[in-house]
Amino acid sequence: MKTAPKYKLCRRLGSAVFEKCQTQKFVLSEARHKKTGKRPKALSDYGAQLIEKQKIRFTYNITEKQFSNYIKQAVAQKAVAPAEKLFESLEHRLDNVVYRLGFGHTRTLTRQMVSHGHFTVNGKRTTVPSYKVYDGDIIAVREGSRKSALFTEFAKKVKDYSVPAWLKLDAVNLSGSVVGKPKNLDSSLNFNAVLEFYSR
Questions:
Q1: Which of 64, 77, 121, 190 yields a CA-CA distance of 20 to 30 A from 47?
Q2: Contact at 8 Å (CB) between 163 and 146?
């Protein structure tokens, strides 16, 4: 997905959008920018909702069309609150699960890794980043990719990494599984505001 310069987007949407912006280099860049920048204008409700929409879309590294489809699916699902359904759908994307398991330090990287066929789901090679995984599914590095530099000393790299409670990682065997339901603990992402934006 082609995007504008990441630092520029992070200034507008927040540093959590891209891992690249969660560094000391960005903090220093932001400090310099604020010294010369103009005072930001007050946002309208529409503007605030638009920013929330863009923030979530760029965080999960998906296109506008993909995001719109996720919104439609969330609204159509009556058994679960739309905001909760939207969050679950985005979290259950294969590229996101691979990212949450710690196989890549950015979603852009894990998207590429999945596209190149480095992972299997329940033993079947999968190259679709948006592939939806379910409770009980096992995600593993493909046998032919295990010697790749991407996974060298993986267990050592993730020794201090904390995997979300809804996932289980077997670092030694380069695999992980879905063992529960994701919980939205990130208050910086307002899914309700996004649904209001699309309901206009």
A1: 77
A2: no
